[in-house]
Amino acid sequence: MIETLVAGGPVMIPIGLCSVVALATFLERMWSLRRGAVVPSSLCVELIELLRQDRDGDALTLCRKHNVSVARVIEVAVEARGRPRSQLKERVEEVGRREAAELERYVPILGTIASIAPLLGLLGTVGGMILTFEVIAQQGGVTDVAPLAGGISQALITTFAGLSVGIPAVVANRYVLARVDALLVDMEEVALGVIDLLAVHGDEA
């Protein structure tokens, strides 16, 4: 296996680094994008119940005790209680955009690796073909196929390696983005429910 990788030439080094970075990024995002770390159901239910009982102070305390996205969004909504619905919604959306950017952190790395890994493989392929034609030029023709094997082998190995890294990176990128979208939808539903609850109370005050 190691001999095969070495036969791919120097381009195999950046391809290997890309694979390590892509895997580390994917695992980190999967850990950070757990539902319990972004929109825990039990916390949302407890917060909404506190707001229905007009226990804003307890709700704020609970939000500040949990370092999760939905808690930060609801905290802003509670602090803006009593304002017109449009202003309250604007404040929540502002915080929501910031939280969305945090959820999408590092995701561009996967997209970049998905793009450059096949290109690195193509670069190695070109390098391998150059070596092959240099051997042909030195021989004055194809008199012995064995010396050509090195260049052809490098060309095929780097192409395979580049695609082997690029294809999973594309899948990982799409999967992480879909997970982020799903979490944002859940968080938006909770935020809208809180806004409706606070707006009603604000109008009654």
Overall pLDDT, averaged?
Answer: 86
Tally of individual domains = 1
The share of residues in extended strands comes to under 5%
Main beta sheet, described?
none
Please, what is the oligomeric state? Answer: single chain
SSE class:
mainly alpha
Notes on the structure:
By secondary structure, this protein is mainly α. It is 84% helix and 0% strand. It is built from 9 helices and no strands. The longest helix is centred in the C-terminal third of the chain and has 56 residues. The radius of gyration is 27 Å and the shape is rod-shaped. The relative contact order is 0.17. The C terminus is likely disordered.
Topology, please?
Elements: H1 2-7, H2 12-32, H3 35-38, H4 41-52, H5 56-65, H6 69-79, H7 85-103, H8 107-139, H9 149-204
Helix pairs in contact: 2-8, 2-9, 4-5, 4-6, 4-9, 5-6, 6-7, 6-9, 7-9, 8-9
